[in-house]
Amino acid sequence: MWKVAAPSEYLAITGSNIKDIKLAKKAFVWPLQKCTRFDISPVNYTFEVQAMSAEKLPFILPAVFTIGPRVDDPDSLILYARLISHHDKQSNHVIELVQGVIEGETRVLAAAMTMEAIFKGTKEFKQEVFGKVQLELNQFGLIIYNANVKQLVDVRGHEYFSYLGQKTQMEAANQAKIDVAEARMKGEIGSKFREGQTTQNAAKIDVETKIASTQRHGEGRKEEIRVNTDVKIFQNEKEADVAKANAELATKKAGWAQDSQLAEVESAKAVAIREAELQCEVERKNALAQTEKLKSELLSKATVDYETKVQEANWGLYKKQREADAEKALAEAAFFARQQAAEGELYAKKKEAEAEKARAEAAFFARQRAAEGELYAKKKEAEAIQALAQAQGYYLSTLLKQFDGNYAALRDYIMLEKNMFQDIAKINAEALNGLQPKISIWNNGGGMETAKGGLGGMKDIAGVYSMLPPLFKTVHEQTGMVPPAWLGTLTDASADSD
């Protein structure tokens, strides 16, 4: 049958003698072929895309997209005919496809921008959305003919833009009120100032009438000097403006001259490059022509030789073919036997590899579970140590608080609680146990002193103990440290007695 498409339509033909899809405006449709007519006119899609900015502020982006097949690219038309043409362009499938692409790209871009950036850079935001959407639509053979994004709208319950507009209106109204108040203030101050100035001037006229003639002459001279000075300053300013304008004009002329020279150089280089490209193309065409000529000559000679040798070889072909058939049958039988043996061996090795893999996976799982258990135990042990350290820290801080920050008292309390003094005495006793020391005390004339009430042999030990109070006092004065309570206390009376 003879099929003809409308101006806004294409024929998509598939079937016999057609490799994939054939697109045409008119064609014969033969038996075993199928023809589908699809419309290529663009369609308007209206969406309200809900997105969220980087500050988690939701907004609505109303948009109208005019989308249709890409008619200037045959590959895109084939994609459209294959993927979309069998659906109605206003069907839910096509609308959800386009809406999903637009919403996805819009949300991704909006999530990386602040609301202020989206609001101020609306044009750039729209261009980014259109570019990303077009990239996704290319895989369906669609193109955006036109896109119109309206003003951003608040989501119900999130009145960011309305509050922003109210803020602008209130700022404008407040500024207008401030301007009116300032104008009223200036008017009242000016009126009062003029009234006072009138009264002051009247008084000045009465007072200064007698000296008016003398001052008039001096004021006239000063006014003339001032006017001359202003004229000179104005002339200097104008001359400076003219010099500045001349300098800017010279700078611009130099830039224009430089751009012109650069353009001329670029044009000349472009012409030279194009000439080189054309020359390369001519040389390539000549080489191809020479190659084709040599190919034709060699092909003719090879064809003649081939036909001659074929005629010479045909006489023994049948005999060799029979022999080859017999050898082929034997070879096929041997190959089949070897193939069966190889398949059996391969199956056995495959099963062995699977078993080895299962054993390795089981061992790995066991090691993994053991490692996880060990890691969990270490973690719990570390948590217990941490909890113990926190409890000990709280315990020590509480004790120190109870002792009013007296570190020495806390230290003595802990040593008593831990039985450190008993342990020290026990260790010293164990160290001396079994030594059986022999202590001898000699003194010269000690018997007389003892008889008279003296210390005798304990005099040296009494001297050592008598040295402790001044030693403790000296250490306290130089370092501020006090002796432990079990060793002795440092008091003023003891210090005086020492």
Give an overview in words.
This protein is α+β, with helices and mostly antiparallel strands. 69% of the residues lie in helices and 11% in strands. The protein contains twelve helices and nine strands. It has helices at 74-83, 92-111, 115-120, 122-137, 160-208, 212-313, 317-402, 407-417, 420-432, 446-451, 459-479, 492-497; strands spanning 2-4, 9-15, 22-24, 26-28, 33-39, 43-52, 58-69, 142-149, 153-154. Strands 6, 7, 8 and 9 form a four-stranded antiparallel sheet that branches. A three-stranded antiparallel sheet has the order 3-2-5, with helices on one face. A two-stranded antiparallel sheet has the order 1-4. A hairpin with a 5-residue loop joins strand 6 and strand 7 (58-69). Helix 2 (92-111) crosses helix 4 (122-137). The protein is flat, with a radius of gyration of 55 Å. The model is unreliable at 446-453 and 493-498 (pLDDT under 50).
Looking at this protein, list some descriptive labels.
single chain, 498 residues, alpha+beta, three-stranded antiparallel sheet, 9 strands, disordered C terminus
Number of helices: 12
Q: Mean pLDDT, nearest integer?
A: 76
Radius of gyration of CA atoms, rounded to a whole number: 55 Å
How far is it from the N-terminal to the C-terminal residue, by CA? 136 Å
Q: Approximately what portion of the residues adopt beta-strand conformation? A: 5-15%
The low-confidence parts are 446-453, 493-498
